[in-house]
Amino acid sequence: MAEPEINPTLARRELAVYFRRCREQHGLSLDDLAALLGVKQSQASRLDSGVRGLTVEDVRRLSDRYGLGEGERGRLLELAARARRRAWWQQIDLPDSYRTLIGLEQAAESISEYCGGVVPGLLQTKAYAVAAVESSGIGRTSSRAEQAVAVRMRRQKILSRADPPELSVVVDEAVLARGAGGVQVMRDQLRHLLDLAQRPRTSIQVLGFEAGLYPVGAAQFMILDLGSRLPAVYFSEDQLSSQVSSEDADLAQARQVWQRLRATALSPVRSAERISTYVERLAS
Q: Does the pLDDT at position 3 exceed 70?
């Protein structure tokens, strides 16, 4: 049996969550953490949240400060070593937030995603991905465009695993109506959505035009549940910025919006019928 692919993103996040709890239990501030590790307060904040990874030496210092036993210290040092390795998504020139998203996708038990203007990357055909990359301005050179498409296709491998994450998606009907790459590309993409919707752990819902206006706050957002050991993560993105957060307030608001979207959208069965209507229009 092949070894599972390393996930430095998950190891880094697990370390950050563990030591953040230790810090809070011992009543230490971020200034205290900065002094202990010999870094600036801004860097301590990034280490505390998992934006940056703790070094092996950082873990030793923190283990000493919190009086951890040898067994626990050894486990954490192994995590620190794992967090310093480089997975495939860290060997490519990508924005840090995108690298974090990919790492979290690899580890997620469930993914909830809303998209208002484009088919979600995990559900795109290759031809649709090419059209999406070209329209977004990512592919200013052919090599960068090919890389962006290749990364998107590789991300999708999580859906073909023996234990794929539970995937629930809501897309605006505008995504179906807006062409991308020509009639054939769009027709194949919509048929692909219908095929994916038949998978047992995948749900696709369409937010129909009849729903009228609805507040979301982001062109795209995801909620990634990582199991009982780690807090869930909220990821949002628009044309100008992206956000990655595990803060309780951000997650609570995102889950509230998500539930409203699911309740407002067509049921999975009616959504498949709506998608089929667009396939028929393109066929004629």
A: no
